[in-house]
Specification:
single chain, mainly beta, globular, 1 helix
């Protein structure tokens, strides 16, 4: 059964899949900024890593997505600093946090 959201790397694409038909992806060659954000999910905070490309498209992956840590570890070699995503954990409950993990300086 594929009812859980999962993230995978396929060549130069990061893909987030849910179920059999929904998928969203981003071309890693076009990524210009990566942030970590905490999101209030009502019962608990969740950390998201958000990738932005040059056209303004965003892809958000969540720490609860299947494969999240494997993807983060793989991205770290290409985008140094990504593995520090947990720095976006709020210091107090319900506190919004946003941390830039990597940005293209070009």
């Amino acid at each position: 059964m594929h009812d859980r959201t999962r993230v995978v790397l396929e060549a130069d694409r990061l893909i987030r899949k849910a179920g059999w038909f929904w998928r969203k992806s981003i071309d890693l060659r076009e990524v210009c900024r990566i942030e970590a954000r905490n999101v209030d999910a009502l019962t608990s905070d969740r950390l998201h890593v958000v990738l932005a490309d040059r056209s303004g498209r965003l892809l958000s992956i969540c720490e609860t997505d299947e494969g999240f840590l494997s993807v983060i570890n793989a991205l770290e070699s290409r985008f140094p600093g990504v593995a520090t995503f947990d720095g976006a954990s709020p210091k107090a409950p319900l506190q919004a946090t946003r941390v830039v993990l990597w940005q293209d300086e070009a």
